Predict the structure.
Amino acid sequence: MKKEMICIICPHGCQIELTQEGNALSVKGNACPRGAEYAKSELLDPRRTLTATVRVSNRKDTMVSVKTEHPIPKSQMMNIMKRLRDVHVNAPIAIGDILLPDVWGTKVIATQRVD
């Protein structure tokens, strides 16, 4: 199997070709070792940092922006978004407050202040 992708690790934007034959992976086109690691992880276990909003219960029509502290499996993004729909927090909220301590092995933290 062959897969082509653009590396997003640095500004070079290398065109990477990843070939998988059985358990062996080969990477071509990367300018640095980080590009090879990115390509392998993107094929085997793609992850993303989730950004979203959560409702603030004690403020009318108010939401607070949040993100996961660490990247989560891309396949779980929609499941976690569904979970966040049911989350309600109370102000005051400071940037960096942990709003959910364990979502798929990471924390959901506030990225906005709400007084």
Observations:
- The chain has a mean pLDDT of 94.
